[in-house]
Amino acid sequence: MKNTVATLMKQKTQGDKITMLTCYDYSTASLFDKAGINTLLIGDSLGMTVLGYEDTLSVTMEDMIHHSAAVARGAKNALIVCDMPFMSYQVSVEDAVVNAGRLIKEGRANMVKLEGGADVCPQIEAIVKATIPVCGHLGLTPQSINAFGGFRVQGKSLEAAKTLIEDAKRVEAAGASMVVLEGIPAPVAAIITKELSIPTIGIGAGAECDGQVLVYQDMLGMFPGKKPKFAKVFANVGEVILNACDEYIKETKDSTFPGEENIYAIDPEVEKELNALYNM
Ligand code: KIV
């Protein structure tokens, strides 16, 4: 059955942890959906994991729509959350509503996610008013790396933690249905999770959140770059791919691939005539 905002709310109230993974294409979406992952995030992390940029800042609306639509085609049950890319919502409330609408209409997402606290509450309110569910994103928000001076854990001082908690409350009051907490101390995430009635989804924010999200290339050992501390590798698929490539190269070179089971036959009489004609 298709997961909805109501399903996730129910999971929070029942203490049933929500699972979210990033996803950027049709076949991976089909697999994650089959596995029963509750929600798939077309994160702007695709800028790094799929497109090879050094950060998420160059990702465009067209990139997000393209990947979101592919994921939506592959996922029957998972709720589809699509990131609003850098500068698609910061400039004006009007931009935010128009671009959120495109992610729903063209990208077939069920919810949009945007980064920021009190500063983006007018955008959240307007998008929700346009009947589009919103997921907030607080803490180590990658679109602000230039302001942060790099990928740094946020909310470590008393003041910074209090600001984060207040921001979370404001994002909820603005109408968000869920909030991602990234790269913040676990005790701060635990307070936010207790204080909010909407679900919190943690990434580098401890086990007290209502759910967890991971970038799938991190959790499957497929990303060549630096791996953050919170990114547990659940299976080394990267190694499986390398081994499969080794085997493919070997079998192609020694002509054991393709084997009898991988080729198309022809009528033996036709084959005989062809061979005679072409001196085979
Ligand atoms: O872009 C992304 O993948 C994200 C997650 C890290 C939460 O925003």
Name its key features.
binds 3-methyl-2-oxobutanoic acid, single chain, 280 residues
List the helices and strands and how they pair.
Blueprint: H1 5-14, E1 18-22, H2 26-35, E2 39-42, H3 46-49, H4 61-74, E3 79-83, H5 93-105, E4 111-115, H6 121-129, E5 134-139, H7 145-148, H8 158-173, E6 178-182, H9 186-195, E7 200-203, E8 211-214, H10 216-219, H11 237-253, H12 268-277
Parallel strand pairs: 1-2, 1-8, 2-3, 3-4, 4-5, 5-6, 6-7, 7-8
Helix pairs in contact: 2-4, 5-6, 8-9
Helix and strand run: HEHEHHEHEHEHHEHEEHHH
* DSSP, total strands: 8
Low-confidence stretches: none
Ligand species: 3-methyl-2-oxobutanoic acid
In whole angstroms, how far apart are the ends?
58 Å
Q: Summarize model confidence as the mean pLDDT.
A: 97
Percent of residues in helices comes to: 40-55%
**Structural shape:** elongated
The radius of gyration over CA amounts to 23 Å
- Strand order of the biggest β-sheet: 1-2-3-4-5-6-7-8
DSSP strand content: 5-15%
Structural class: alpha/beta
Summary of the model, kept short:
By secondary structure, the chain is an alpha/beta fold. The protein is built from twelve helices and eight strands. The chain has an eight-stranded parallel beta barrel, surrounded by seven helices.
